[in-house]
């Protein structure tokens, strides 16, 4: 039933990670960054896998295995590996659904006309190293992070004053989540007015107490 599996910084032994086998039939995302992987020969059959992260390993070839074991890959990250020539990458032609390929920090990126050659070789891909042929950036998780930052800013703006009003804010979390800033402001004003009324009543009590003392005298 597992659909996502992250094994970053684990250690592979003889080209495989113990426990990673054909039983992961529903796996759609697999990350094995920096696991000292030298080969893909022992990669299990993962027919539903769509995203494969293999960055910062020591893979230098044998990529033809991917089309056999992971035929539905749409995203493949091989950055930081030992891939040096176009002949090695040519094996990815059989990944018909591949849309995005990353080869950052591989020696192959030093080849003359590297980008044009890869796009010509792998005509099914749209993005290479995060950019298409017209140098337009691929939509990725960075956009999601930016939206998350905006959400954080909104939360800060909606938060009420600290201290004695935190309890009131907790009660109004539902309103905050809906972004109803005006309603929250009204609640805050009524709360403040209630505080002032109580203060005035306290003052009256104090004055009345003082009058009783004078009458006693």
UniProtKB/TrEMBL annotation:
Keywords assigned: Chaperone, Chromatin regulator, Cytoplasm, Leucine-rich repeat, Nucleus, Repeat
Cellular localization per UniProt: Cytoplasm; Nucleus
Gene Ontology terms, MF aspect: histone binding; phosphatase inhibitor activity
Compositionally skewed regions (Acidic residues) per UniProt: 131-187, 197-217
GO cellular component: cytoplasm; nucleus
Superkingdom to which the source organism belongs: Eukaryota
Keyword Cell membrane found: no
Entry's Gene Ontology BP terms: chromatin organization; regulation of apoptotic process
Record region (Disordered): 130-217
Nucleotidyltransferase is among the record's keywords: no
Main location: cytoplasm
A Pfam family reported for this protein in Swiss-Prot or TrEMBL: LRR_9
Stated role: Histone chaperone that specifically mediates the genome-wide removal of histone H2A.Z/H2AZ1 from the nucleosome: removes H2A.Z/H2AZ1 from its normal sites of deposition, especially from enhancer and insulator regions. Not involved in deposition of H2A.Z/H2AZ1 in the nucleosome. May stabilize the evicted H2A.Z/H2AZ1-H2B dimer, thus shifting the equilibrium towards dissociation and the off-chromatin state. Inhibits activity of protein phosphatase 2A (PP2A). Does not inhibit protein phosphatase 1. May play a role in cerebellar development and synaptogenesis. Multifunctional protein that is involved in the regulation of many processes.
Family: Belongs to the ANP32 family.
The protein's name in its UniProt record: Acidic leucine-rich nuclear phosphoprotein 32 family member
Species this chain originates from: Sapayoa aenigma (broad-billed sapayoa)
Species lineage: Eukaryota, Metazoa, Chordata, Craniata, Vertebrata
Gene: Anp32e
């Amino acid at each position: 039933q597992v659909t996502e599996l992250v094994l970053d910084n684990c250690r592979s032994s003889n080209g495989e990670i113990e426990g990673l086998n054909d039983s992961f039939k529903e796996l759609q995302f697999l990350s094995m960054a920096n696991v000292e992987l030298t080969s893909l020969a022992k990669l299990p059959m993962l027919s539903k896998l769509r995203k494969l992260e293999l960055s910062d390993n020591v893979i230098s070839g044998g990529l033809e295995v991917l089309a056999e074991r992971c035929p539905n890959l749409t995203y493949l990250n091989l950055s930081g590996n030992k891939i040096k020539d176009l002949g090695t990458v040519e094996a990815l032609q059989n990944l018909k659904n591949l849309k995005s390929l990353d080869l950052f920090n591989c020696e192959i990126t030093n080849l003359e006309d590297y980008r044009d050659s890869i796009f010509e070789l792998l005509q099914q891909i749209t993005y290479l190293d995060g950019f298409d042929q017209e140098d337009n950036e691929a939509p990725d998780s960075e956009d999601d992070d930016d939206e998350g930052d905006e959400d954080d800013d909104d939360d800060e703006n909606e938060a009420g004053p600290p201290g004695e009003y935190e309890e009131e804010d907790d009660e109004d979390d539902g309103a905050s989540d809906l972004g109803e800033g005006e309603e929250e402001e009204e609640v805050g004003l009524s709360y403040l007015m209630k505080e002032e009324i109580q203060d005035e009543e306290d003052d009256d009590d104090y004055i009345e107490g003082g009058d009783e003392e004078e009458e006693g005298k």
